[in-house]
Write a structure and sequence with these properties.
With 591 residues, the protein is α/β, with parallel strands linked by helices. The chain folds into three domains: 302 residues, Response regulator (Rossmann fold, 3-Layer(aba) Sandwich), CATH 3.40.50.2300; 39 residues, no CATH class; 163 residues, 3-Layer(bba) Sandwich (Glucose Oxidase, domain 1). 34% of the residues lie in helices and 12% in strands. An eight-stranded mixed beta sheet has the order 7-8-12-11-10-9-13-14. The two termini are 25 Å apart. The N terminus is likely disordered. The structure holds FE2/S2 (inorganic) cluster and magnesium ion (MG). The site of FE2/S2 (inorganic) cluster has 10 residues, from loops. InterPro entries: Dihydro-acid_dehy_C, DiOHA_6PGluconate_deHydtase_CS, ILV_EDD_C, ILV_EDD_N, IlvD/EDD_N, Sugar_Degrad_Dehydratases. Keywords: Iron, Iron-sulfur, Lyase, Metal-binding. GO terms for molecular function: hydro-lyase activity; iron-sulfur cluster binding; metal ion binding. This is Dihydroxy-acid dehydratase family protein. Belongs to the IlvD/Edd family.
């Protein structure tokens, strides 16, 4: 079902068209001629398509978008549009301190201002590394000009000594091997480098591949875009087709608000479960939804996605990597399974101009080892558990990555197969954790839960990916590879740890995690989705009264502004005031 071509006056003509704006046109126009554009082009009523460029030398995960933009421009030109490429504030997950998450909203703000304030009729959003995707989509949602995503795609598969070495995951695994004395630092670095063999983003189902898959599920990219490995020829061909389609979107006035509906978000949540998506996805998807005016709550991840099985055998939940996922059919093959099982809204409209059903009806997988059938999945239930209790209102747990060994140790009591009690070891952030985890005085044993606090959006600005803490080296050497963890920070989407994370409200926002003491007993009940410290309400109240008031030490102007405006992880870590600016493209009084 394609939307109708309306042949409306284009937004950009409020800048370029002499009759619309005779006084100002010369000023708006002349500087764009100085590198060779002609008045004929700019005043011809052709769609002006922005290319929001997230690639640069500071963002290696997206750097090949600099080259891909050439093919996007070819596509835009061939379809009758005029491309304008511009930079997005750099967002590199692994290089930005204190966190890349802090800058998600900064890049968002910058992009909103560009999309709003320049003569753009539509935009191609180049996405990849974790925060680039939500920053771009949230901005397009706010402004609501026609937008389409070009994912950058994962790196090629990494291999070390003949075995697959997946992004991020290899680091967590090698930390354990290093701690157990199985490898030295040089081998550690060689193994980690082997996981990054080419341009592209993480090749595991971390936050990057998860979020780009969810873009496809939301209907905001062409079918099959997310999984194409970055260096493949198909990636550049996809760039060309995306450019072409961007021009058509403008003619059809197919805006983000027409695509990103409640149905589309439910589809995204269902796909998230089926791919065992990163635990960062609920945060980002909530942010996008709030800015496009659709109600999505963290609870939806359990109600809508809780009983969806994991279909993709891709790390960290499974064994394969990005190239295997692509060859097996990628997101369309996963969506085909879900659609055939009646779990998707098939009539949701997408930027292809067609519905989800039309896009995925024939997209069968070619490899059942990588993409399972709905009837014979990798894991029966892939959704996030959304937890609450006397320490917090909301937290999520990615149950699909809980290992057998952990289940045996913690979840095998015949009376309470879904619950355990553990002694809390509390850390005041990642620096404290690294300084003390191997201190024998902590007496960490296999009946402990590692807790980290002051690591949420306010406490460690942006929210640090630190909840997937490793056990002390002495315990790892004894074969205990994972302890349960709890924290108000986030964790890498590539982590395979049994963590309760994204705790909201965080300790720094007055959450009860702040009153916890090392030695307290914590009761975790996966069936009831509850986490409770086993002390009385009176004791909790007394400890709260005794707490000194909290002050923040901002290191940059942006950190101060961020902390003044930021919400919690369970509501998307949005700048709360910003969510009221919706559908603003035409508020300047232009067409
Ligand atoms: Fe950039 Fe994983 S660090 S995609
Ligand atoms: Mg990450």
């Amino acid at each position: 079902m394609a939307t109708k071509d309306t042949k409306r006056a284009l937004r950009s003509q409020a800048w370029w068209d002499n009759s619309a704006n005779p006084d100002m046109t010369a000023l708006y126009l002349e500087r764009f001629l100085n590198y060779g554009l002609t008045r004929g082009e700019l005043q011809s009523g052709r769609p002006i398509i922005g290319i929001a460029q997230t690639g640069n030398d500071l963002v290696p995960c997206n750097r090949h978008h600099v080259a891909l933009a050439g093919r996007v421009k070819d596509g835009i030109r061939d379809a009758g549009g005029i491309p304008f490429e511009f930079p997005v504030h750099p967002l590199q997950e692994t290089g930005k301190r204190p966190t890349a998450a802090l800058d998600r909203n900064l890049a968002y703000l910058g992009l909103v201002e560009v999309l709003y304030g320049y003569p753009l009729d539509g935009v191609v959003l180049t996405t990849g590394c974790d925060k680039t995707t939500p920053a771009c989509l949230t901005a397009a949602a706010t402004v609501n000009i026609p937008a389409i995503v070009l994912s950058g795609g994962p790196m090629l598969n990494g291999y070390y000594a003949g075995k697959r070495a997946g992004s991020g995951l290899v680091i967590w695994q090698c930390w354990r091997m290093l701690a157990a004395g199985e490898i030295g630092y040089d081998e550690f670095m060689d193994r980690v480098a082997a996981s990054a063999p080419s341009v592209g983003h993480c090749n595991t189902m971390g936050t990057a591949l998860s979020m780009n898959a969810l873009v496809e599920a939301l209907g905001m990219s062409l079918t099959g875009c997310a999984a194409i490995p970055a260096p493949y020829r198909e990636r550049a061909q996809m760039a060309y087709e995306t450019g072409r389609r961007a021009v058509a979107l403008v003619h059809e006035d197919l805006t983000p608000r027409k695509v990103m509906t409640r149905q589309a978000f439910e589809n995204a949540i269902v796909v998230a479960s089926a791919i065992a998506a990163s635990s960062n996805c609920p945060v980002h998807i909530t942010s996008i939804a709030r800015h496009v005016g659709v109600e999505v709550s963290t609870q939806d991840w359990q109600t809508v996605g809780g009983d969806i099985p994991v279909l993709t055998n891709v790390a960290p939940a499974g064994e394969f990597l990005g190239e295997d996922f692509y060859r097996a059919g990628g997101v369309p093959a996963v969506m085909h399974e879900l659609f055939a099982a009646g779990r998707l809204h098939g009539d949701a409209l997408t930027v292809t101009g067609r519905t989800v059903a039309e896009n995925v009806r024939t997209t069968l997988t070619s490899d059942r080892a990588v993409i399972r059938s709905y009837q014979a999945p990798l894991v029966e239930r892939g959704g996030f558990l959304v937890m609450s209790g006397n320490l917090f209102d909301s937290a999520v747990m990615k149950t699909s990555v809980i290992g057998e060994d952990f289940r045996k140790r913690y979840l095998s009591s015949p009376d309470h197969p879904d619950a355990f009690v553990a002694r809390a070891i509390v850390f005041e952030g990642p620096e404290d954790y690294h300084a003390r985890i191997d201190d024998p005085r902590l007496q960490v044993d296999e009946r402990c839960i590692l807790v980290i606090r002051y690591t949420g959006p306010l406490g460690y600005p942006g929210g640090a990916e630190v909840v997937n803490m490793q056990p002390p080296a002495a315990l790892i050497a004894k074969g205990i590879e994972a302890l349960p963890t709890l924290g108000d920070g986030r964790q890498s989407g590539t982590a395979d740890a049994p963590s309760i994370l994204n705790v909201s409200p965080e300790a720094a926002a007055g959450g009860n995690l702040a009153i916890l003491k090392t030695g307290d007993l914590i009761h975790v009940d996966l069936k009831k989705a509850r986490v409770d410290v086993l002390i009385s309400d009176e004791e909790i109240a007394a400890r709260r009264r005794a707490m000194p008031p909290l002050t923040f030490k901002n290191q940059t102007p942006w950190q101060e502004l961020y902390r003044d405006t930021i919400g919690q992880l369970d509501t998307g870590a949005c700048m709360e005031f910003a969510t009221k600016y919706q559908d603003i493209a035409h508020t300047m009084g232009i067409p």
